[in-house]
Design a protein that fits this description.
heterodimer, A: Rossmann fold, 3 domains, 8-stranded antiparallel beta sheet, 5-stranded parallel beta sheet, 16 helices, 22 strands, B: mainly beta, Glycoprotein, Type 4 Pilin, OB fold (Dihydrolipoamide Acetyltransferase, E2P), 2 domains, 8-stranded antiparallel β-barrel, 4-stranded antiparallel beta sheet, elongated
Chain lengths: 504, 166
């Protein structure tokens, strides 16, 4: 397989920018695609070429396989990187790429089929002797079957989309009375998000930790793992804070987790980067949850502790290169934490907060990484997910990584949309979090105690609010400024726009 | 310039006297000397007695949101004259009706109530899909559904009335 020289990135937001950065570092030209509302998105500006692929709804743009393949061919790209979400775990898309002579930067369709559906993955886990959470193996046929199975495994149960991920199409059911509406909402979300309404049931492990293992596999059959990430800090199954390593995992357990993950990947015929997720109970028993056949949102924490660039590896593996290192070469050093900055209002029911970012000052300084998809003046559209940026820090140990994250969050300023930053700051200050007492129930405990303010800066807030009003009145009284010249970049064609000049 | 700033249900009279990039601000008779730099991006630098504060300020739906020192405040600011006119003659108050409006743009995926239904606080009323998430909007208090103005599949904008409860 030839080395890749031009890659189409079939995604948007921070992950598209992340992938393009890796491409540029490897001397690979990049092709962006964008929907009609994403003309001003950052990923369009970071690419060498960019093409409009349709209206705002993802189903009419980012999920249009035929359009994406057409653009890739027209632009002369040899490969498509799917990022995460959208078509990243769609086996049909992988096959269509292959039929069109395009390399898919990810696993083969057969591996996605083997583990992509959660029910198939559970069957595979049983074959290679990896324990899975007790529940149904096959998708549920009816509400009646769901009721019967739920009674068998005992409440509380979790309703999950067979093709799910990121908490979509997933509902906790504590009693039979809640089952019907949970099934309806899970099916609705599943078919909207994944185009498949299949769902299944699992027993709920109380207060578990969510620990996952990063694996890398090349086409020659080498499979290695890059240690674990702990992602227990979640709200409604959306991860908020992730770290690597996990304070709950010692060297012996890491080896067992890693071996189980590699066994599963091998059995699936897996190639490229993937993640095996486990639920871990208080006695350190781990249960296979699912395999994510793509790059994860939280991949940077693994990169910071191992020094291995996962997107570089993805591109090299897709270009046919063998892994350049073995399991024994992988070392974890220090501690990394990631915090997700979402456009959500944590003090207003966590509702999404689309709008224009009027002010933005990202955090910087030693061992701080900002993987962002936005910029000052950018309008966050309402059509896509709420992730604006990921803030990732490294420290020599967990305590110093936490202090660094607290410092970086205090530095990070976003004005115009509400964000999760204030909650992330409170998580860093939380005694239980600092002690490493984590579980997926952490946010359920913390959320009700969250208050927008404790009154420490009430007078400053009044001063700032009144000065803002004075400023507004003063500006309104001034004669209007001469209209600025129309910036010429706004006059460019929508489709086929290409950046001028070269980038080093 | 005199203003009334309302925060957490409490109103404060605030007087501001600009003085060459500095401001003399009197809140309920306490005087603050402030060196303020008000940037158009909403990130304000305030120096008060040598202490440095950075406040993020934005206005949404007539409320000024201020983030400072890891805390978020919602402050209602009006000119004092306007405040006096608005509050004098007190317009009845005590509206028993609850109006559920769309908090953000999105698509209605489910309507859980019909006209005449009795609801209590916390009951789900409408599910709105926005930014890939289904968000359940719940009743703030008990009452009877008087109007349902949307159906599943409808696209709504912020402020659109969805359900009226009496």
């Amino acid at each position: 397989m030839p080395r890749l020289t031009k890659v189409l990135v079939a995604n948007r937001g921070e992950i598209a920018v992340r992938v393009m950065r890796a491409c540029r570092e490897l001397g690979i030209a990049t092709v962006a695609v964008f929907s009609e509302v994403d003309r001003e998105a950052l990923h369009v500006q970071e690419a060498d070429e960019a093409y409009c692929i349709g209206p705002a709804p993802a189903a009419e743009s980012y999920l249009r396989i035929d359009t994406l393949i057409g653009v890739a061919r027209q632009a002369g790209a040899q490969a498509i990187h799917p990022g995460y979400g959208f078509l990243a775990e769609n086996a049909g898309f992988v096959e269509t790429c292959a039929a069109a002579g395009l390399v898919f930067v990810g696993p083969p369709a057969s591996a996605i089929r083997a583990v992509g559906s959660k029910t198939a993955a559970r069957r595979l886990a049983r074959e290679v002797d990896v324990a899975a959470v007790p529940g149904t193996i096959d998708p549920l046929k009816s509400d009646d079957e769901a009721r019967r199975v739920a009674r068998e495994i005992g409440y509380p149960v979790m309703v999950k989309a067979a093709l799910g991920g990121g908490g979509k199409g997933m509902r906790l059911v504590r009693a039979e009375a809640e089952l019907e509406s949970a099934l309806r909402m899970a099916r609705g979300e599943a078919s909207a998000a994944f185009g498949d309404a299949s769902i299944y049931l699992e027993r709920v492990i109380e207060q578990p930790r969510h620990i996952e293992v990063q694996i890398l596999a090349d086409a020659a059959g080498h499979v290695i793992h890059l240690g674990e990430r702990e992602c227990s800090i979640q709200r409604r199954h959306q991860k908020l804070v992730e770290e690597s390593p996990s304070s709950f995992v010692d060297a012996a357990m890491r080896e067992r987790l890693g071996a189980a993950a590699c066994r599963l990947a091998r059995a699936a015929g897996y190639v490229n980067a993937g993640t095996v997720e486990f639920l871990v109970d208080a006695d350190r028993n781990f249960y296979f949850l699912e395999m994510n056949t793509r790059l994860q949102v939280e991949h940077p924490v693994t990169e910071l502790v191992t020094g291995i660039d996962l997107v570089h590896q993805q591109l090299r593996i897709a270009g046919g290169e063998p892994l350049a290192f073995a399991q024994a070469d992988v070392r974890q050093r220090g501690w990394a934490i990631e915090a997700r900055i979402n456009a959500e209002d944590p003090f207003g029911g966590w509702l999404p907060s689309p709008g224009t970012i009027t002010g933005l000052r990202p955090a910087a300084g030693p061992w701080v990484r900002d993987d962002s998809g936005v910029y000052e003046g950018y309008t966050v559209p309402r059509f896509y997910d709420t992730l604006l940026a990921k803030l990732i820090v490294w420290g020599a140990d967990r305590a110093s990584a936490i202090e660094r994250m607290a410092r970086a969050l205090a530095e990070y300023r976003i004005v115009g949309v509400r964000t999760t930053i204030p909650v992330l700051e409170r998580i860093m200050a939380d005694a239980e979090f600092r002690a490493g007492h984590l579980s997926t129930a952490f946010m359920d405990r913390m959320a009700p105690t969250l208050q927008a303010a404790e009154g420490r800066h009430e007078s400053i807030a009044i001063v700032a609010a009144v000065l803002a009003e004075v400023d507004r009145l003063t500006r309104a009284a001034l004669p209007p400024a001469a209209p600025a010249e129309a910036p010429e970049w706004r006059l460019g064609a929508t489709a086929g726009w290409q950046r001028a000049g070269w980038r080093r | 310039m005199k203003f009334v700033a309302t925060l957490g249900g409490q109103s404060h009279v605030v007087e501001v006297a600009p003085d060459h990039g500095r401001y003399r601000v009197t809140i309920d008779e306490r005087v603050w000397e402030i060196d303020a730099r008000l940037r158009g991006d909403g990130i304000y630098s305030l120096l008060i007695d040598g202490r440095s504060y950075v406040a993020d300020v934005s206005v949404q739906d007539g409320v000024t949101l201020v983030d400072v020192g890891g805390e978020s405040y919602a402050v209602q600011v009006e000119e004092q004259a306007r405040h006096i006119i608005r509050t004098r003659g007190g317009a009845g108050g005590g509206h028993a009706a609850q109006t559920l409006t769309a908090p953000l743009p999105g698509k209605i995926t489910h309507v859980a109530v019909a006209v005449g239904d009795a609801v209590k606080a916390g009951d789900p009323l409408v599910v709105i899909e926005a930014m890939k998430m289904e968000n359940e909007l719940r009743a703030k208090g008990a009452g009877t559904v008087a109007e349902v103005r949307v159906a599943a599949g409808a696209t709504v904008n912020p402020g659109d009335v969805l359900v009226v409860i009496e």
